[in-house]
């Protein structure tokens, strides 16, 4: 799927027809997703920026991922809110963080959707095993949700989200949710009476090999408490959140020690 034109790849790999004779592997992907997506939009939802860099004019999935991330957060929050009326905001946030984490979504991409073979990658990214990278697989799940919302609206997108993550939501409710670093930083800030974390993003490098830098601060305060880098926005923010959490924890312990020694 790499190194060919976007049009050829679309025709060969993700062409979908209502005719049985035209049943393609992409039909299996859509069956697993539980919806329909027009061929052009499906191609975009499966196109990594490394492929669009090598094939000018080919749209990549990043805008759809942005949209799908918002839909996923809405539906998962709505579901947890209704299922667990006695849980606090903090408990719900922990469960949501785990249910829609990179690890959870990439596992869905591998086991439920088996989407790896459909992803359109540039030569370099393909050679580096991009179709198996959790960050890319996670992005693809969100872009497919975004494409569903764009084509069918919120009701159909909600059905797709439930189809994909209800098992995970049930699992995190029984095993006790683990915090990711972004949620941990938010909880730590609340505990210390500080504002919500804010992430300031910078991007460097060529489009096909971008490096994301996230700088975490609290509210409108310009003081940076943590900096992180990564191959995706999500990874950079998690790294910045980890650094920020550790900085707040050190400061809190230092302040507590000073009070005890006075």
Can you describe this structure?
- By secondary structure, the protein is mainly alpha-helical.
- The protein folds into 2 domains: 25-175, Ribonuclease III domain (Ribonuclease iii, N-terminal Endonuclease Domain, Chain A); 181-261, Double Stranded RNA Binding Domain, CATH 3.30.160.
- The chain is 61% helix and 8% strand.
- It has 12 helices and 3 strands; from the N terminus they run H-H-H-H-H-H-H-H-H-H-H-E-E-E-H.
- The chain has helices spanning 6-13, 25-33, 39-45, 49-54, 62-83, 89-99, 102-113, 123-127, 134-152, 154-175, 181-191, 233-261, and strands at residues 197-204, 211-218, 226-230.
- Strands 1-2-3 form a 3-stranded antiparallel beta sheet.
- Helix 11 packs parallel to helix 12.
- The protein is globular.
Could you list some keywords that capture this structure?
mRNA processing; magnesium; three-stranded antiparallel beta sheet; 3 strands; Ribonuclease iii, N-terminal Endonuclease Domain, Chain A; mainly alpha; rRNA processing; Double Stranded RNA Binding Domain; globular; 61% helix; cytoplasm; 262 residues
Short description:
This protein has 262 residues and is mainly alpha-helical. The chain contains twelve helices and three strands. It has helices at 6-13, 25-33, 39-45, 49-54, 62-83, 89-99, 102-113, 123-127, 134-152, 154-175, 181-191, 233-261; strands spanning 197-204, 211-218, 226-230.
């Amino acid at each position: 799927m790499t190194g060919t034109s976007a049009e050829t790849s679309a025709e060969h790999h993700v062409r979908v027809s209502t005719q049985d004779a035209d049943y393609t592997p992409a039909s299996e992907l859509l069956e697993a997703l539980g919806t329909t997506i027009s061929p052009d939009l499906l191609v975009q939802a499966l196109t990594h920026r490394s492929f669009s860099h090598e094939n000018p004019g080919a749209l990549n999935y990043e805008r759809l991922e942005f949209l799908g991330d918002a839909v996923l957060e809405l539906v998962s929050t709505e579901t947890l809110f209704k299922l667990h009326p006695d849980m606090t905001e903090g408990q719900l946030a922990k469960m949501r963080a785990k249910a829609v984490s990179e690890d959870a979504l990439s596992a869905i991409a591998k086991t439920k959707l088996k989407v790896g073979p459909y992803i359109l990658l540039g030569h370099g990214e393909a050679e580096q095993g991009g179709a198996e990278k959790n960050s890319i697989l996670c992005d693809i799940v969100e872009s497919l949700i975004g494409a569903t919302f764009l084509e069918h609206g919120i009701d159909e997108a909600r059905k797709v989200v439930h189809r994909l993550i209800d098992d995970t939501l049930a699992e995190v409710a029984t095993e006790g949710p683990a915090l990711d670093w972004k949620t941990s930083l938010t909880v730590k800030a609340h505990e210390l009476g500080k504002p919500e974390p804010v992430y300031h993003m910078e991007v460097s490098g060529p489009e096909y090999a971008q490096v994301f830098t996230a700088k975490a601060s609290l509210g409108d305060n310009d003081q940076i408490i943590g900096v992180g880098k990564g191959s995706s926005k999500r990874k950079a923010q998690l790294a910045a959140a980890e650094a920020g959490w550790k900085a707040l924890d050190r400061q809190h312990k230092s302040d507590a020690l000073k009070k005890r020694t006075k």
